Amino acid sequence: MRAKKFAVTALLAAGATAATAGIAQAAPATASPAAIHGVEQGVGFVTAPTADHAGLTTTVEAGSFTVTGDSITLTDAAGRTVTSVPLGLRTASGTVGLTPRIENAGRTLTLTPQSATTQTAQAIDEASDTIARKQYNAGVGAVIGGGIGAVLGFFLGGVGALVTIPIGAGIGALIGYSTP
Known about the structure:
Blueprint: H1 2-24, E1 36-40, E2 43-49, E3 56-60, E4 63-68, E5 71-76, E6 81-86, E7 88-91, E8 94-103, E9 108-113, H2 117-155, H3 161-178
Antiparallel strand pairs: 1-2, 2-3, 3-9, 4-5, 5-6, 7-8, 8-9
Helix pairs in contact: 2-3
């Protein structure tokens, strides 16, 4: 009986190993182009990255794009303004200009940044990196402050920890968040 259990267990382990090896050797799935379909105030649109991934193309079904001053205006079939998009994107390191190209009788808009793509992406990501770093520091500060509060509460008779742990965690989170 013991030999049968061992054989079954060994057979299952060998099968799982073979299945995992087969999955690990599989070819990666081909990436499908990302596109966003939607409707805004009755105007259907499709937005997707350009073929070289350096810009963004939007095509509307019943409406048109026009350049008006420092912005692009989308109007519906009746001529009402649906939205207006500025030709500059504010980032943490300044404003990135956008170059518009309108085609297909005003139905297709392509926006490309006027600066290098990697610099633009880096400038946009700097703000989110700063917030993520501050939130991480706040979490670490809360844990350290809570630990200090627990130690102080222990010396105050144990019950004091009910008061000192949240106070220590709050102070630690504030200090952690304000750390650059």
